[in-house]
Amino acid sequence: MDLGFRGAATVVVGGGRGMGSATAQCLAEDGARVAVVGRCREVLEAAALDLTGRGSPDAVAIVADISDPTQVDRAFAEVGERWGELNALVNTVGPGAAGNFEELTDAQWQEAFDAGLMGMVRCVRAALPLLRRAEWARIVNFSAHSTQRQSTRLPAYTAAKAAVT
Ligand SMILES: NC(=O)c1ccc[n+]([C@@H]2O[C@H](COP(=O)([O-])OP(=O)(O)OC[C@H]3O[C@@H](n4cnc5c(N)ncnc54)[C@H](OP(=O)(O)O)[C@@H]3O)[C@@H](O)[C@H]2O)c1
Known about the structure:
With 165 residues, the protein is an alpha/beta fold. It has helices spanning 18-29, 41-54, 69-83, 106-133, 155-164; strands spanning 9-13, 33-38, 60-63, 88-91, 138-141. The chain has one domain (9-164): NAD(P)-binding Rossmann-like Domain (Rossmann fold, 3-Layer(aba) Sandwich), CATH 3.40.50.
């Protein structure tokens, strides 16, 4: 399928596993350059190798924990040094924080917002100069269907996702 990504510079945050990995694979098969960002080097390096085999001309693994602003800035500085610009930023990292309202602690609520919202905020902020340098650019942030249909086990998760939306 031609999605128009041939040669595009793309970053998938959380691209080592799950839906982030599936997204990175689609981009690679369309010929995009793909950087996958996550915390586990081993997983990311295996993913980058797989993306190269699928057709990505310059797949790369970048290790960063997006809960740490310094690591986020370092990751996008590496993207800037490598490609000079960015066409697409895909943010897939979401919060955990399962539990009903009575069970969830303040710390879990804070964690849901830090992991589910602020990580994306940090990545967008760090990526913006690179996105603005490109001829065209898009940002995709993964939300969740539960923002439209609340689950009793996910109030903190869903509140963080609603903030993303
Ligand atoms: N699965 C579902 O049913 C579902 C439904 C609705 C919405 N969603 C949303 O869709 C998105 C993807 O879900 P998924 O189930 O595919 O995710 P997943 O399999 O749990 O994968 C999460 C990815 O994010 C990375 N990650 C987690 N914390 C990170 C951090 N602090 N810094 C950098 N990378 C981090 C993980 O890699 P490392 O561990 O190596 O860092 C992993 O690659 C999430 O936003 C989720 O909320 C999922």
